[in-house]
Amino acid sequence: MNAAVELDPRIRRGVSEAWGLGPRARFSPLGNGLINRTLLVRDDGRRRVLQCLNTHVFRDPELVMRNCHAVTAHLGRERAAGRYGYAVLELVPTLAGEPAAVLDDGSWWRMYDHVPDTRTHDTTAAPALTFEAARGFGAFASALCGLDRDSVGEVIPHFHDPVRRFHAFRAALAADRAGRAAAAVRECNAALAFDEALAHWQHLLEAGLPWRITHNDCKLNNLLFDAGGRAVCVVDLDTVMPGSLLFDFGDMGRTMLSPVPEDCPDPERIEVRRDHFAALARGYIEGCGELLAPLERDNLVFAARLVTGVIGLRFLTDHLDGDRYFRVAHPGHNLERARNQFALYAALTRQADALQALVPRSA
Ligand code: GN1
Ligand code: MG
Question: Which of 18, 76, 206, 283 has the lowest CB atom count within 10 Å?
Answer without folding.
Answer: 206
